[in-house]
Amino acid sequence: MSHFNRRQILLSAMSITAVAMTSSMGMADGLPKLAVKKTYKVGFAQTESNNPWRLAQTASMKAEAEKLGWQLVYTDAAGSAAKQVADVNSMIAQGVDAIFLSPREEKPLIPAVMAAKKAGIPLFLIDRGVDASLAKAGVDYVTFIGSDFKLEGEQAGDWLVKTTGGKAVIIELEGSTGSSPANDRKKGFDDVIAKNPGMSIVASQTGDFNRDKGRQVAESLLQAHPEATVIYAHNDEMAIGAISAIEAAGKVPGKDILIVSIDGEKDGLQAIIDGKLGATVECNPKFGPAAYAAAIAYAKGDAIPPVMTNKDRFFDANNAKASIADSY
Ligand code: GYE
User: Fold this and answer.
1) Contact 51 CB / ligand 1 (< 6 Å)
2) Whose CA is nearest to atom 8 of ligand 1?
3) Quick check: CB of 263 below 6 Å from ligand 1?
4) Residue 11 above 80 pLDDT?
5) Whole-number pLDDT of residue 16
6) Looking at CB atoms within 10 Å, which of 47, 66, 135, 259 has the fewest?
7) Residue 56 and residue 121: Cα distance in Å, rounded?
8) What would the pLDDT profile of 253-285 be if each residue is shown by its tens digit?
9) Residue 13 pLDDT grade (very low, low, confident, very high; cuts 50, 70, 90)
10) Do the beta carbons of residue 230 and residue 256 sit within 8 Å?
11) How far is CA 281 from CA 177, 292, 318, in A?
């Protein structure tokens, strides 16, 4: 071995030691810190406001900020990932202490996450995630707080297996393309169906988490697949749209076609009570208390887990009536 090589090895060993020292000092993660203060100015970047789930989420974030006496900078991206990136940039320019982001899609919001980090502002993902290969919890942003979407899809699938005895011809209405709940609710559900040879998904198309788009897509897919016996919708809004489409096609929802979905909004629970929707997996939108509590804990220096999973319930004919009063 030449002297040059030996020197190189020595130098790289020294830099490894330097990295190890930095990490033991708690700096290697590069996460911006949050000072302990009596009050904060925080931002909440909402993705859209076109359904009861979103309105309940916004109401929770606003009510809890008011309760704590914090100033809230609120933005609504109106369904545009590009606007949401601009919204986060404007929060950065306004010098907020922390940012709570519900990213519309997994990839296009990465620049917003990275911009907050670069500006030294801790960012918390709430409700939806971003692509894990492009940004990391505990490194690029503090944590993800929300539901386990893959588990939600599995639970919808398990209910269907149980209810149909493993026989079904399924139409799937997907959420917004590129969003983490649409990706993972599909994964979880499709995995369960793949294990049941008597079940098949004959069509899977996006309805953008939207009631009217769900109705339109269900209408055309029901025409193309008159043999369908089940509709799985990634949220209650699309399930309710699908119920209208089934009725318009002269069929009976809940009898000719079974429907299963996710969320647990008031209209969803009412559809269960009416016998039209079979079941819905809860996805709780009331993030205010958990989101701000995580920020307070982070400021104090508590260890924050990279994923904080909400505990959700499951609604069917057994408990829909008892649960509707505190729904949204
Ligand atoms: O299910 C849906 C909303 O991101 C988990 O988005 C959320 C989903 C929710 O528009 O209704």
Assistant:
1) yes
2) 181
3) yes
4) no
5) 40
6) 66
7) 26
8) 999 999 999 999 999 999 999 999 999 999 999
9) very low
10) no
11) 20, 25, 13
Please work out whether the CB of residue 40 comes within 6 Å of at least one atom of ligand 1.
no
Residue with the smallest CA separation from ligand 1 atom 6 is 209
User: Measured in angstroms, how far is the CA atom of residue 182 from the centroid of ligand 1?
Assistant: 9
Q: Report the distance separating Cα 278 and Cα 205, nearest Å.
A: 21
Could you identify the atom of ligand 1 that is nearest to the CA of residue 53? 11
> What digits encode the pLDDT tens for the residues 148-190?
999 999 999 999 999 999 999 999 999 999 999 999 999 999 9
Decide: 179 and 128 in contact? Cβ < 8 Å. Answer: yes
Chain CA centroid to CA 182, Å: 8
Q: Which atom of ligand 1 is nearest to the CA of 128?
A: 4
211-247 pLDDT, tens digit per residue, is: 999 999 999 999 999 999 999 999 999 999 999 999 9
Alpha carbon of 235 to ligand 1 centroid (Å): 7
Q: Which domains does the chain have, with CATH numbers?
A: 17-146+285-311 (3.40.50.2300), 149-283 (3.40.50.2300)
Report how far residue 238's alpha carbon sits from residue 12's, in angstroms, rounded to the nearest whole number: 56
Statement: residue 12 has pLDDT above 50? no
Question: Can you say whether residue 44 is alpha, beta or left, with left for phi > 0 and alpha for psi between -120 and 50 degrees?
Answer: beta
Task: Out of 209, 238, 262, 309, give the residue to mutate to test ligand 1, the one with the largest number of ligand atoms within 8 Å of its CB.
Answer: 209
Average pLDDT over all residues of the chain: 93
Rounded to the nearest angstrom, the distance between the alpha carbon of 20 and the centre of ligand 1 is 41
Percent helix, strand and coil across the chain, each to the nearest 5: 45, 20, 35
CB atoms within 10 A of CB 1: 6
One DSSP character per residue, 190-233 reads HHHHHT-TTEEEEEEEE-TT-HHHHHHHHHHHHHH-TT--EEEE
**According to the model, what pLDDT value does residue 21 have?**
37
pTM listed for this prediction: 0.91
Q: Which two tokens stand for residue 191?
A: 């995995």
d(CA 69, CA 87): 23
Supply 55's token pair. Answer: 């309105």
State the sign of the Cα–Cα–Cα–Cα dihedral 163, 164, 165, 169.
negative
